[in-house]
C-alpha cells in the first residue's frame, strides 16, 4: 500500500491534529453557539469534546434540512411485512410529527435533562419518540423489545425515567408479543416508578391502560402545540443505552449531543460512502446501538433517507425479503449482521431469490455486530456482486473503530479482517501487562486515549465504574474487551471477547445475567453459563447446572424450568441451547470456574489441561454429557 493513499493521508491528519480534524468535521453541524474548546482534557482520562458549544440534535436531524428547502425529500421509509403495512415520511412530515410529540412530552412535564424510557417495536413512532426527546433536551433510554420484565426493571432503576413510551405489542413471525404486561411487570419489579406511560395502541393487540398513569399516544397528542428545539450543551447527554457487561448489571453507555452529531455525520459519509439524498438501510433494531446510530441519527443528520424495517431476513415471507426492500426503495448502502446472511444462505444457498430482484442501485453491504466468518463474506460477495465490508465497533464506541472506509478509499479486502483503523481511532494490540505485541500476535485490542468524538464519555451516573471497566487495566488506553491481532499491513482480525459477554445472533448478552436467573431456580446449587459456537447464531448460551443434593425434581424438569425462566426474565433472545446437569463444575484450586476450557470442550476444540485444575476427571464427564445431548 502506498504511503500516499487517500486513506493514509486522512488517517494521518486525524492523528497529527485531532482538534483541527474534528473541528473541521464539526462545520457540517449547526451550532446555536460555537464551541470554545474542541477537546477538554482537564479531567483526563475523562475527556469532553466541543466544550462550550450549544446545539440541538433534532434540529440537525430534521429542521435544518427543511429550512434548506429539502422538506419534500423522504426522511423515513417504514416497511413492515410483519404488520402488512408501509409508510413514508418526508423531512417536513417527520419534523411536524416529532415537534408535536415533543409538545406532548412537554405537556406531561418532560424537561431538558429528564430521562424517558422507550420500550418499543420497530415502528416509526419509536424514531419519533427518540427525536422528540432530543428536541426537548431530554435523555432517552431505549430498551430492546426482546428484553423481558426483569431486564426492563434494571434499566428503569438505573435511568429513573420520568416517563415511559411504549406500545401495545411487537410482532414476531410466530406470535404477537404483548409489551404492556411486560412493561407493567417491569414497573412493578423496579424501585423507581415513572409517573406517566404513553402507550401506542397497535391493531394487533389492544393494551389495557392503568388508570391515572397511562395515556394513549393519540390522546397525548390532543390539543398540544408543536415544541421548538431546545439548545443544549454539546456535552449534555443525548441518550443512555444499556449494554451487557461482565456482571448482571447492565452498563448505561452515555452519548453526548455534540460529539455524537459530528462523528455520525462524518462516519456515514466517510466510512459508508453515503451522501445527502441517498437511501441507506440498516436492518437492525432501534434497541441496539446500530439502530440508534444508523437507523435514526446518522442518516437524518446527514440528510439521507433511512429505511426502518419490521421484519426478518427469512420467513417474512422468504429469504428474498432483503432484496425486495433494496429494490423497492433503491437502497444504495445496506448494513446488517452476519447471522442474517447465514440464515439467508441456509435457505437460499444458490441465491435464487437474489436473482429475482433488480439490485442495480445496490452498491455496498456492511456487516458488523459479531465476527464475520470468511465463508459468509465470500458467499455474499459472490452472490451479490457488491462490495462486502466487515467492520468492527461496539455499543460503547457508537460508530466504527475499524473499517474499510469506502467514502475515502476502498482498500483491498482481507476476509476475516474488518480492515484498518478508522481515522480518529488509534487501535493497538497489547499483551496482558500492556506491552505492544508484534504483528500477527493475538492480544488485547485497546484504543489509545483520548477516544474520538461520539465515543462514550462515561457511564450513566457511574464515572468510577467507567474508569474501572474500561480505563484502569491498560494505562492510557480504552480496553475493548476484544482479543485479536493486527497483521503486517495493519489489518485488524477480531477473534473473541476477553470477558463473559457472548454474542447471540448479533445480540450482546451477559452470561453473568443469565447465571443470576439460574441461581434463583429451586434445586440449582451452582451454575455456569458459557457461549458455545452455533452455525447460525454465531454463539448460543449453554448452562451447566449442579443440583442440590436433596433436589426433588428430575434433571430434565430442572433444565426445562431453567430454560423457561431465562426466557421469562431476560427474553427469548437469550434462550439456552442446553441446560446440562453435571456432578460438579470444573474449577481451579482457587475456586475459579474453568469457563474457557468448558467452551473448548463444547466446541469440540483441543484444550490444554490447566495445571491448577482441582479435579480433571469432571472434564471428561462434561464432554460425554455434551456429546450425548448433541446426539
Ligand atoms: N421482541 C420480542 N421477541 C423477540 C424479538 C423482539 N424484538 N427479537 C427476537 N425475539 C424472539 C424471537 O421471536 C425468538 O423467539 P422464539 O425462540 O420463541 O422463536 C427468540 O427471540 C430468538 O430470536 P432470534 O435470536 O432473532 O432467532 P430467530 O431464530 O427468531 O431468528 C435470525 C434468527 C438470524 C433470522 C435473526 O436472529 C436475525 O434476523 N438476526 C439478525 C439480528 C440483527 O440484525 N442484529 C443486529 C445487531 S447489529
Ligand atoms: P455490541 O456492543 O452489541 O455492538 O457488540 C460489540 C461486540 O460485538 C464487540 O466487542 C465484538 O465482540 C463483537 N463485534 C462487533 N462487530 C464485530 C466484527 N466486525 N468482528 C468481530 N466481532 C465483532
Write up this protein.
By secondary structure, the chain is α/β, with parallel strands linked by helices. 33% of the residues lie in helices and 24% in strands. Strands 5-4-17-16-18-19-20 form a 7-stranded mixed beta sheet, with helices on both faces. Helix 1 crosses helix 2 (18-25) and helix 4 packs across helix 5 (124-136). The chain is globular. The termini are far apart. The mean pLDDT is 95. Bound molecules: coenzyme A and adenosine monophosphate. The site of adenosine monophosphate has 19 residues, from strand 25 and strand 26.
User: Looking at this structure, what is the CATH superfamily of the largest domain?
Assistant: ANL, N-terminal domain
Low-confidence stretches: none
Number of strands: 31
Strand proportion? 15-25%
Keywords:
GMP Synthetase, Chain A, domain 3, 2 domains, binds adenosine monophosphate, seven-stranded mixed beta sheet, Rossmann fold
Task: Provide a concise account of the structure shown.
This protein is an alpha/beta fold and 631 residues long. Helices cover 33% and strands 24% of the residues. α1 (6-16) crosses α2 (18-25), α3 crosses α5 (124-136) and α3 (57-70) packs parallel to α10.
Secondary-structure topology with pairs:
Layout: H1 6-16, H2 18-25, E1 37-40, E2 48-51, E3 54-55, H3 57-70, E4 74-80, E5 85-90, H4 91-107, E6 115-119, H5 124-136, E7 139-142, H6 149-159, E8 163-167, E9 169-172, E10 175-178, H7 179-189, E11 196-200, E12 214-216, H8 217-221, E13 232-233, E14 237-243, E15 251-256, H9 258-270, E16 279-282, H10 289-302, E17 305-309, H11 321-329, E18 333-336, H12 338-347, H13 352-355, E19 364-367, H14 374-384, E20 387-390, E21 402-403, E22 420-421, E23 427-430, E24 443-448, H15 463-471, E25 477-486, E26 492-497, E27 501-504, E28 507-510, H16 511-519, E29 524-534, E30 538-547, H17 555-569, E31 578-581, H18 595-602, H19 617-630
Parallel strand pairs: 4-17, 6-7, 6-8, 8-11, 11-12, 16-17, 16-18, 18-19, 19-20, 30-31
Antiparallel strand pairs: 1-2, 3-13, 4-5, 9-10, 14-15, 21-22, 23-24, 24-25, 25-26, 27-28, 29-30
Helix pairs in contact: 1-2, 3-4, 3-5, 3-10, 4-5, 6-7, 9-10, 12-14
The structure holds coenzyme A and adenosine monophosphate.
Adenosine monophosphate binds at residues 243, 289, 368-372, 390-392, 394-395, 418, 480, 482, 494, 497, 503, 508.
